[in-house]
Structures are given as structure tokens and as C-alpha cells.
Amino acid sequence: MAIAKAERLMNLALCLLGTRRPLSKRELRGSIEAYLEAGNDDSFNRMFERDKDDLRELGLVIETVENLEGETGYLARRDSNRLPPVSLDAEEAAALGLAAKVWQQARLAGAASGALQKLRAGGMPETGDPYEGQHSAIEPRIPVHEAAFEPLMLACRDRRPVVFDYRKSNAARPEPRQVEPWALECWRGHWYLAGHDRDRGAERVFRLSRITGKVRSRAGKYTAEVPDVVTVRETVAAWAGEGAQRSALIRLRAGSGYPLRAKATGVREGADGWDELEIPYGHGLDAWLVEFGPDVVVVEPADLRADVVDRLRAVARG
Question: Mutual orientation of helices 41-57 and 2-18 as an angle, nearest 10°?
Fold first, then answer.
């Protein structure tokens, strides 16, 4: 069955590339044996539409125009489907191969694999896998565990507004949010969405792990202009205290909280199983510290300690 479909796609591609004028579906059906064997018009139409979509997915540029008889016709111009030679050296090819390995989940896995196959067919040199046979501590993969990732990725691509329920770190229950999604970005192992929050009339960043339920698409156009540069990582970093001018003193249980240790400006090991850390203090640090639960105790400043206690109480009530 797979061989028959591949042969059918090849014959359709040759017909579209070999014609000098648009060919109607009627003419294509009469030129390809597999289409002649289709049981009825409905079966042929479904088969043809699937084949046309498959060829476009493979990279063939198919134009839809009216032929001389006024019928809808199809053709694939050779100049539109001719690419220049792929001139990549071994290091560039290896970098692309490594990038393709990053996406192992959602629809990006198939897209990355397909793009790599097209480049190799165009002359990109084959390279060995630098991770093959190794069990490195650094894996060339970006994990995507949140169910909201794929629908939000597609909504960003298609510029579609979405609605979802979102639970803030200090809230007992989620609230509905209407968002015009702009971009997704991974920062410190967590995925974030940047977009225009319609209810608040301003840019907002949402952590995907706090989205509950399904992400639902909405019809209509965006009401706010999409910025040329969306700084998801910079926004989240600012909320987490990156570049902050103040410092906070916390006690951290020994052997835990490695992300906190990585950003600490000073560490004093304690003899009681707890270490003291000085970390940059900026907007959103309280929400980050809450994630470490009983492994973190805020010593100072007092306002940060109070914010962390309030968030923990909200979580306990929820």
C-alpha cells in the first residue's frame, strides 16, 4: 500500500511539473492510472486532495489557477520548485542535525525530521551523531510535558486568539484568560507564553505548567499589534530577579535547590544541614521560592518573607 501511494504521488508530481499549462482534476484523473481505478468521483476527489496536500508538505509548490476552459487547474512551475545547491560544511550540517534532535515531542518532531531529510536530499553532507553510543549528562532535547504546548504553538503560528484557565502561584483556583499568543520560549526548564491579555489590556507572560484544562481557540483577528521582538526570557528573568539591585538572604536545605545555588552571589555552608545563600531579589522571586516548598526559608528582607508566607497559605487553602 505504501509503495502504491508513493508511485501515485510521484506520477502526480511528474504531471504537474511536466505541464506547460494548468491541468484540471478531470485531466489529471485521466492521466494517472491509480485515479482511473478510483471507484467514484467522491473517492477520487478525496484521494486527489490528500495527495496534493502530501506533495505540498514535501515541499512541492503547486499553483491553483484557471485553465483556458475556465476550469480550476493545477501546475508546479519548474522555476518555483528549483532550489540552489545546498552548500553547508560539516560543522554547519552537524549543527542542523543536533537542532533537529532537540524536538522529540509534539508536531515539531515530524517537521524537524522532514526538514533534515529535504536538506540531505539537496546535498547537505551526512554527519555522525555526536551523542550516539554515549550517555551524556547533557541531552540535546527540550522536554515538552505540558498539554498546552501544542495548541499554543499552533495558535502562535496561525495568529489565533485562545482562551484557557490559568492559576497564578498565589491563587487558590484558576481564572479564565483571553490571550492573543505571540511566542513560546523555554527558560530554566519551564515553558512560557508571551501574549496580549485582552481582559487586562496589556502584555503578559504565562507559565504553561499553570494552565489547567484545555486551550480553546477563538475566531477573529488580533486586537493588539504583535511586537517585532518578543522578549519572553528577558521578561521572565526580570520577574525572577535577574539583574536586580537588591539581595535576599535565604536558608536552603543542603543538597537541594540547585537552580537557586546557581544564581547565588554568596553561599555559606551551615553545620545544621542548612546553607545560607544571598540571591538577587526582584519582582517574582517570591513565586519562584515557593516552588521549593519546605527546602527554603526566607531570612530577609521582611517583605519577601511575608510574600512567600502569603503564597504558601494560598496554596494550602487551595
Answer: 80
List, as one string, the DSSP characters of the chain: -HHHHHHHHHHHHHHHHH-SS-EEHHHHHHH-HHHHT-SSHHHHHHHHHHHHHHHHHTT---EEEE-TTS-EEEE--TGGG--PPP---HHHHHHHHHHHHH--STTHHHHHHHHHHHHHHTTPPP---TTTT---SS-S------TTHHHHHHHHHHT--EEEEE--TT-SS-EEEEEEEEEEEEETTEEEEEEEETTTTEEEEEEGGGEEEEEEE--S--SSPPPSS--HHHHHHHHTTTT-SEEEEEEEETT--HHHHHH-SEEE--SSSEEEEEEEE-TTHHHHHHTTGGGEEEEE-HHHHHHHHHHHHHHHH-
Q: What is the grid cell recorded at 247? A: 539581595
Rounded distance, CA 113 to CA 241, Å?
38
Q: What torsion, rounded to 10 degrees, do the Cα atoms 210, 215, 219, 221 define?
A: 30
Q: From CA 31, how far away is CA 28, in angstroms rounded?
A: 5
Q: Compute how many other C-beta atoms are within 10 angstroms of the C-beta atom of residue 179.
A: 24
pLDDT along the chain (318 residues), means of 10: 78 90 89 86 90 85 80 86 71 70 56 64 58 48 75 88 87 88 82 91 89 90 87 68 73 90 88 90 79 91 88 77
Q: What is the pLDDT of residue 134?
A: 45
Residue reference for cell 542542523: 96
